[in-house]
Amino acid sequence: MLVYWKNKVTEFMRGDVGKRVLSTILAVIMVFGLLPEMELHASAASAIAATGNVTLTNGGQYTLATNRTGYYINVPNGVNATITVTANVTLNNQSGGGSPIRVASGGTLNLVINSGVTLTVYGQNAGTGGNGVDVSMTSPGGNGGSGGWAGINVPSGATLLVRGSGTLSATGGAAGNGGYSHGTEPFQGNNKAHNNGGGGGGGGAG
Questions:
Q1: Residue 177 has what pLDDT?
Q2: CA-closest candidate to residue 148, choices 203, 98, 91, 92
Q3: pLDDT per residue of the chain (206 residues) written in tens, 0 to 9
Q4: What is the DSSP string of 118-155?
Q5: Cβ neighbours of 63 (radius 10 Å)
Q6: Are 107 and 157 in contact (CB under 8 A)?
Q7: Pick from 91, 104, 97, 105: nearest CA to 169
Q8: CA nearest neighbour of 84 among 109, 107, 103
Q9: How far is CA 132 from CA 136, 178, 189, in A?
Q10: 45, exposed or middle or buried, with CB in 10 Å at 0-12, 13-18, 19+?
Q11: Are strands 192-195 and 182-186 parallel, antiparallel or unpaired?
Q12: CA–CA separation, 137 and 183 (whole Å)
């Protein structure tokens, strides 16, 4: 029986139909052999480095596996990008740098945190209020300090989608201290005229 079917296949391949089928298969193989090697840059994930500010591109796929201090990741208007957190990471901007992650109005960030992984984010702390001026009653008090920054800044019109079974801890910058007041000018006897120090900046959102 095996010999019978082997002979039938041989007869088919020797016939006109068989030759056309074989020619078609060979032609397809040759075409694919001539095609350049496919590049998958668009779908390959780019690793976010430990230093430098980063602006994401539309459709971009990124991985985050390293701590960053004093830098931000920006998602501009019109951009829809994905960051996958693959290791325990801390983004710490308490001493400067504003919000470590910023999503502009009209932008979308898909934040995927893998299982067993924690992403910890700290926004910049608020500024200290300015001291009062040690002069006359007509001198102004100190200026208020700048407010703290959010850990992840998502204004109106921006979209943040958090997925995955990992943990996200986002903390806004701490409130600043108020400035000192001063008083040296005589006022009604031994009383002094005081110029109040500026208030400290408010804390940032998480």
A1: 59
A2: 203
A3: 544 444 544 554 455 554 555 456 555 455 445 444 433 344 589 999 999 999 999 999 999 999 999 999 999 999 999 999 999 999 999 999 999 999 999 999 999 999 999 999 999 998 665 455 555 545 555 454 456 899 999 999 999 999 999 999 999 887 655 554 555 554 445 544 444 444 444 444 44
A4: EEEEEPPPPPPPPPPPSS-TTS--PPPPPPPPPSEE--
A5: 17
A6: no
A7: 91
A8: 109
A9: 11, 10, 22
A10: middle
A11: antiparallel
A12: 9
Strand partners, 101: 73, 152
Taking residue 197's Cβ as centre, other Cβ atoms within 10 Å add up to 23
Geometric angle at alpha carbon 124, from 121 and 202, rounded to 5°: 115
112, β-bridge pairs: 84, 163
In the numeric block, which tokens belong to residue 3?
């010999």
d(CA 197, CA 142): 4
Q: And the tokens for 110?
A: 């898909």
Dig out the tokens for 149 from the structure: 């920054």
Helices assigned H by DSSP within the chain:
2-14, 16-34
77's torsion region: left (phi>0), alpha (psi -120 to 50) or beta? beta
CA distance to 150, 192, 194, per residue, from 188 (Å): 46, 8, 13
Q: Tell the residue number behind the tokens 């931000």, with chain if given.
A: 72
By the 10 Å C-beta count (0-12 exposed, 13-18 middle, 19+ buried), 91 is classed as buried
